[in-house]
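Journal club prep, notes for RB
We'll compare a predicted complex against what the paper describes. Inputs for the flavin-adenine dinucleotide case:
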Amino acid sequence: MIQADYVIVGSGLTGAVIARLLADAGRDVLVLERRSHVGGNVHDHLHPSGVRIHTYGPHYFRTSSDRIWEFATRFAEFYRYEARVLTQVDGKLEHWPVTDSYIRSVAGPKWKPEFTGKPTNLEEAALALMPRIVYEKFVKEYNEKQWGKPARALSADLCKRFDIRTTDDPRLKPDSRYQGIPTHGYANWMSAMLQGISVIRNYDYLLHRKEVHARSWLIYTGPIDEFFSFDMGRLAYRGQQRYHNYYPDRGFVQAVGQVNNPQHAGGPHIRTLEWKHMMPPQSRSTVRGTVLTREVPCTPIDPGAYEYPFPDNFNQQLYSAYRARADWLERVLICGRLGEYRYYDMDQAIARAMALAARLLKASPKRTRTPEQLQALKISMTF
Ligand SMILES: Cc1cc2nc3c(=O)[nH]c(=O)nc-3n(C[C@H](O)[C@H](O)[C@H](O)COP(=O)(O)OP(=O)(O)OC[C@H]3O[C@@H](n4cnc5c(N)ncnc54)[C@H](O)[C@@H]3O)c2cc1C
């Protein structure tokens, strides 16, 4: 039997932040992770050339919160990285988000939204925000590729993430005060966050439920539908297949780290990443060649490949049905991007985990193990 006061399933940001804060408060914590590495989707790895690849897609950390930035930088140094994204439109590279001068040049200075009223789908919501020509070139087909459905069948809420510029600032998120990437990579950052906490890797909690005992709380950060054996149906997700190409004799291929490919005519991929741009300048100079990765959206079956929750009413209702059951469980907390079926940026995932950890600490009195008990636990967990 594997036991601890707090058993945390998943070592992604949600699980790791909760584990860290509980351990800091002197609680007995054990983390179970089914992958061979900690860190969840924030993980990165080194290509043999020395290029650091964000294994599950590009991750740009940003926040305007002092508290979150202080927490993040407690475990690693970050170097300033402000993402700039270009987008391939009609054979040319334009900025994304679309700049004010581009909008004026294609639609004139006095353009008016074509759609007024309450939008019921992505197309209507987009036409309430931008000229049709911009929607058609930059937004429509990108989203059709991303979600695998026509734009008129997609949720109007997707437009909440668009930024319609009134300036020509080329930065992806100019408003975030703190922006960066850990100097020595996300994997090292996440390992440092879990330093001193017992972690069992390659261990799927759902395959061993009966062998795990959480004396105070079970905190589960995996997919909520999988927790209930998908017995009310599967929640839909989109993921990406990643195709890597190494160019040993090229310094750089693209002008920036991310180039979007929004049009169907450009092929099935939605973006191409050149990771070397995301590395600190001093590390780039030691790398030979460069690695480019094309991301092609897909509908994954394997829960390990789930990336974006599908934004529609059907899936929200199914999630609510699972959530209602989860809320009845005693001393079980199902949370995180997969447990709450919700996209969280890293800073939001940290903020949410901080709030949950505070609630857990309030809910359960402190109990610690003796050094002998801790030693016995470590020995039994060495495999
Ligand atoms: C493609 C992509 C790009 C992104 N880019 C950005 C970005 O640029 N900036 C940003 O701020 N955020 C970005 N994010 C969001 C970021 O990845 C999330 O905020 C973060 O991963 C949330 O962490 P989590 O712990 O909730 O989930 P996860 O990272 O998914 O962690 C869950 C962990 O639980 C483990 N697990 C699941 N089930 C079990 C089980 N049964 N037993 C044991 N372990 C289990 C999983 O293996 C995983 O390690 C991006 C997300 C995606 C999908």
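Talking point for the session: The two ends are 14 Å apart (CA to CA).
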